[in-house]
Specification:
By secondary structure, this protein is of the alpha/beta class. Among the domains are: 95-262, 2-Layer Sandwich (Uridine Diphospho-n-acetylenolpyruvylglucosamine Reductase, domain 3); 266-372, 2-Layer Sandwich (Alpha-Beta Plaits); 638-817, no CATH class; 823-935, 3-Layer(aba) Sandwich (Rossmann fold), CATH 3.40.50. It is 43% helix and 13% strand. The protein has 39 helices and 28 strands. The strands form seven sheets. A seven-stranded antiparallel sheet has the order 15-12-14-13-17-18-16, with helices on both faces. The chain has a five-stranded antiparallel sheet with strand order 5-6-10-8-9. It has a four-stranded mixed sheet with strand order 1-2-4-3, with helices on both faces. Helix 8 runs antiparallel to helix 20 and helix 17 (404-417) packs antiparallel against helix 18 (445-465). The N and C termini lie far apart (82 Å). This is D-lactate dehydrogenase (cytochrome).
Length: 937
């Protein structure tokens, strides 16, 4: 095996940015959601099927093993390697929905939630619904046969597979949707297909094993290879297609899949039911199985206690005895009548159980979301309170329903025996599928031994005593590989080994996963989770944060920033040398290239804001510039004047040279200086005229009065030389006057800054000082908080909002102010053309989605919000200093906005980048409102 020769050869076929050998990035990219750590020697980004074939060819040539990864949210160690890790470039994200929506064709890089958004107009969805659906990708969903809360066994990847396109170990491509491809494959690989047929013959010759297979797949089961494929199909091509489901990248590469979709009924109701003992709870589940219910989630009393702080939890849940538990029942219907019938059937059942306590079914979207947030909060609740240095482990097993209650009791007894007192149980009760979550340290042999003995007892109890599944939906991976033979028996395990040998004869596809003769592999290469910083110590490295990060396709994601920071901290604490190149790479990729907006916290199950860590590290990194920051903060009015002066000069140059030529010239200089100089974009604004206003404060007796605080950015930047934009203050003042409102301004109108530019550079002291100056001015001018304050720039509103609230100041961002105070005071003639909108990350963090939508519906009802762009990555001045970040975040914007006339946002700096990468002019919300509104009669 020669990694170095593989690396040399692969670089001849792929561009340099598709081949990663930098040690810091290898460590970062090698991280997945499991508790195993293997660092790849090479990471290769495959752009297309040709790349995959070339990688497999060179892997075979140099006897180098290859592991495929999609999103890295898998939990069982199936996506880590110390050899070649193949990741998907962003070229694998296309999909196609058939006309009636009954089938969807998906490439492996499509996120599960994206597939469902594409199907929403058809009232359909994909069958699998894993908890990680907002982050996991189709490739991983199929490779792990993922299921979820509502999926059951009928709607998983295996049962909804319509067709699949795969690349085998020898580079052969077969697409089961194309008859010509299948026929050619039958001719070229007749021997392979004959071997698969022979495995079917062997299985059918063992009636007891046939019955065992049928029993296993009446349950949820992802342990080992899917022998149900061998049993369910006579055609060896279909056997092959369905063996790929759940094969975890050990049998080939899935380059496209077609799912039969399932109905996504619009009418829904949920209820929470409490039981004094789990036996009665389990008996109820068995009876619910016969009714039209979509999901039944079980929580034992320990799980209920873990979320007792959450809103919406019924009071009776806290009075349940230790032996009790709860069910969360979800029913749906294609019509209100259908839904009512389903509710009545469940209620009739519950009425026959006098001891059951129920919230009753609710159809309130808010209450339903609360219930399911409680259920989904159980896993992070354990992660949030774990001891620093421990790992959160989530296992999933499945019991036959008649053993469900006993299984819960036996698991709880094992928790007590092995001192896992924080452990909880919850799960998809209709399928007998239970997840149990506990925390584990791997810092010494005693702890590893404790985990090993616990897992062996669990395995014997589930697989042997109860005939259940050791992995119901999380995949075998390395975690359960030593126990596959235990669960299935030697005869079935021998068939699985034959399948591996047929489809991967050189044992180069993800070796050690699913089939592994090493009975200690589940306790080897365990991931260290050392204390690094209180801000991120709770991170469980699940990867849920990654899709929302603007730098995900440029440098690192929040998960990768945290994992590399942990490793750097570990090396320093242990006194081990840190490679200078490793540190330099970390400083740029982890610190400098982070937008630090903190939007990642909105997706994090334990509410970690990685941006906070980055700002803390920047403060340490930028300590030499503190004196300059202090000076700038003291003379900020002068700084603002210089900024306007610079914008005047650049606009003159744009007129003389042409805006695009100036951008090209500064880009050339940027390349020549190695990225050390800023880029002057063609959409860079001209200078605006700052607000000049009398020093007037509102009096307590004043009527129809508002305070208008315009940010330093809004007062500095007008339109660009290539658009017809006005400045934001002029538009806002015009609208406020049309609404008949008296405007007062904080003083000085120029020179007040929320401090956000200083916070973003790590200068918190100067940022806080400037923020307090603004709040002092707003308190004074608003008559002690009596009058509402309009803030016209979303990042600045976010910066001030919490502190303003503590001061008693009513501060509103643009959309919230318009929604509450202006819509009913104006006559609006809506813009009818399609309009692109961008909800800034700062507006999202303020929870302004609904007010923003209400304003848009009134002003521009034909608005379009591009998908999968959460943060634009402009991040203050990074759009100039690091334009590559902005470009990476908005690379799909132009394609998604081709039919739009213009764009709308609520941050002037964000609008620079949005205009650049869409080809549209992005206006502020106030500019558009000013154009479509008149004074109300």
């Amino acid at each position: 095996m020669s990694i170095s020769l593989f690396l040399t050869d692969i670089k001849k076929h792929l561009p340099s940015d598709c081949v990663v050998s930098d040690p810091m990035r290898l460590f970062a990219l090698g991280t997945d959601a499991s508790f195993y750590r293997l660092v790849p020697k090479v990471v290769v980004y495959a752009r297309n099927e040709t790349d995959v074939k070339q990688i497999l060819k060179l892997g075979h040539k140099h006897q180098v093993s290859v592991t495929f990864r999609a999103a890295g949210t898998s939990l069982s160690g199936q996506a880590v390697t110390d050899s070649v890790l193949v990741m998907l470039s962003d070229a694998w994200r296309s999909h196609r929905v058939e006309p009636l929506g009954d089938v969807i064709h998906l490439q492996p890089g499509v996120i599960g939630a994206q597939a469902n958004r594409a199907l929403k107009p058809y009232d359909r969805k994909i069958g699998p619904d894993p908890a990680s659906i907002n982050a996991c990708k189709i490739g991983g969903i199929v490779a792990n046969n993922a299921s979820g809360m509502c999926c059951g066994t009928a709607h998983n990847s295996y049962h909804t597979l319509h067709g699949i396109r795969i690349i085998l170990f020898d580079g052969t491509l077969v697409d089961t949707r194309e008859p010509s491809s299948v026929e050619a494959f039958r001719q070229s690989h007749s021997a392979l297909l004959e071997q698969l047929t022979n495995i079917r013959t062997q299985l059918l010759a063992q009636p007891r094993l046939v019955e065992k297979v049928r029993h296993k797949y009446r349950l949820k089961n992802t342990t080992g290879y899917g022998l149900n494929a061998v049993l369910d199909f006579e055609d060896p091509v279909q056997i092959l297609a369905h063996l790929m489901v759940g094969s975890e990248g050990t049998l080939g590469f899935i380059s496209e899949v077609a799912f039969k979709t399932v109905p996504d009924y619009p009418f829904r109701a949920s209820a929470m039911i409490g039981f004094n003992d789990l036996s009665l709870c389990a008996q109820t589940v068995e009876r619910l199985k016969e009714l039209n219910v979509d999901a039944v989630e079980l929580l034992d009393k320990r799980a209920v206690n873990s979320v007792k702080h959450m809103q919406g939890l019924p009071a009776f849940s806290l009075q349940l005895p230790d032996a009790g538990g709860m069910l969360l029942i979800d029913v749906r219907g294609e019509s209100t009548q259908h839904l009512d019938e389903n509710i009545q059937s469940v209620n009739a059942l519950l009425e026959s159980i006098p001891s059951a306590q129920s919230t009753g079914f609710t159809q309130s979207t808010h209450e339903i979301e609360q219930y399911w947030k409680i259920r989904k909060g159980t896993f992070p609740a354990v992660g949030a309170v774990r001891e620093v240095g421990t790992t959160v482990i989530i296992e999933d097993v499945a019991f036959p329903l008649n053993y469900l209650a006993e299984g819960v009791g036996r698991l709880q007894a094992l928790f007590d025996k092995y001192n896992y007192h924080e452990a909880i149980i919850f799960g998809h009760a209709l399928e007998g599928n239970l997840h149990f979550v506990f925390t584990q340290s791997f810092e010494n042999e005693q702890e590893i031994e404790r985990y090993d003995h616990f897992m062996k007892e669990v395995s014997n109890m589930v697989a042997i005593e109860f005939g259940g599944s050791l992995k119901a939906e999380h995949g075998t991976g390395r975690n359960m590989a030593p126990f596959v033979a235990l669960e299935w028996g030697n005869e079935a395990y021998d068939l699985m080994k034959q399948i591996k040998a047929i489809l991967d004869p050189h044992q180069l596809l993800n070796p050690g996963v699913v089939i592994n003769e090493n009975d200690q592999v589940h306790i080897e290469n365990l991931k260290a989770m050392p204390a690094a910083d209180a801000i991120v110590d709770r991170c469980i490295e699940c990867g849920f944060c990654e899709p929302i990060c603007p730098s995900k396709d440029f440098t690192l994601t929040p998960r990768q920033r945290i994992t590399t920071f942990r490793e750097l901290t570990r090396l320093q604490s242990a006194g081990e040398p840190v490679n200078a190149q490793w540190r330099k790479s970390f400083e740029f990729q982890a610190i400098d290239s982070c937008a630090a907006t903190g939007l990642c916290a909105s997706q994090c199950p334990v509410d970690i804001n990685t941006g906070e860590l980055v700002l803390k590290l920047r403060a340490q990194q930028n300590h030499r510039s503190r004196a300059l920051a202090k000076s700038l903060s003291r003379h900020f009015a002068t700084v603002a004047s210089f900024t306007r002066g610079a914008l005047k000069i650049q606009s003159i140059l744009q007129r003389i040279l042409g805006a695009q030529r100036l951008e090209n010239a500064t880009m050339a200089v940027r390349r020549w200086t190695g990225g050390r100089t800023p880029l002057w974009l063609a959409t860079t604004p001209k200078a605006a005229k700052p607000i000049y206003a009398r020093n007037v404060s509102a009096e307590p007796t004043d009527l129809n009065t508002v305070v208008y605080w315009s940010s330093c950015v809004a007062q500095s930047m007008a339109g660009s030389v290539n658009d017809d934009r006005s400045d934001i203050p002029s538009a806002a003042q015009s609208v406020l006057k049309k609404a008949g409102l008296n405007i007062v301004y904080p003083q000085p109108t120029r020179g007040l800054c929320c401090g956000q530019p200083f916070f973003s550079k790590g200068h918190a002291q100067q940022g806080t000082q400037m923020m307090e100056e603004v709040l002092d001015a707003l308190w004074e001018v608003s008559s002690g908080g009596r009058y509402p304050v309009l803030s016209d720039t979303s990042p600045c509103s976010l910066q001030l909002k919490e502190s303003a609230l503590k001061r008693g100041i009513q501060l509103y961002d643009s959309s919230a102010f318009i929604d509450r105070f202006l819509l009913n005071r104006l006559t609006i003639s809506p813009e009818r053309q399609p309009v692109a909108v961008h909800l800034t990350c700062s507006a999202q963090k303020q929870g302004l989605e609904q007010s923003f939508k209400r304003v848009l519906d009134a002003v521009t009802p034909n608005w379009v919000q591009p998908t999968d762009i959460a943060c634009c990555g402009f991040a203050g001045d990074k759009g100039f200093q690091l334009p590559e970040l902005n470009a990476a975040a908005l690379k799909t914007l132009g394609v998604q906005t081709t039919s739009c006339a213009f764009g709308i946002s609520t941050s002037r700096t964000c609008e620079i980048g949005l205009s650049k990468h869409s080809g549209l002019t992005y206006y502020s919300l106030f500019e558009v409102l000013d154009k479509v509104s008149t004074k109300s009669d």
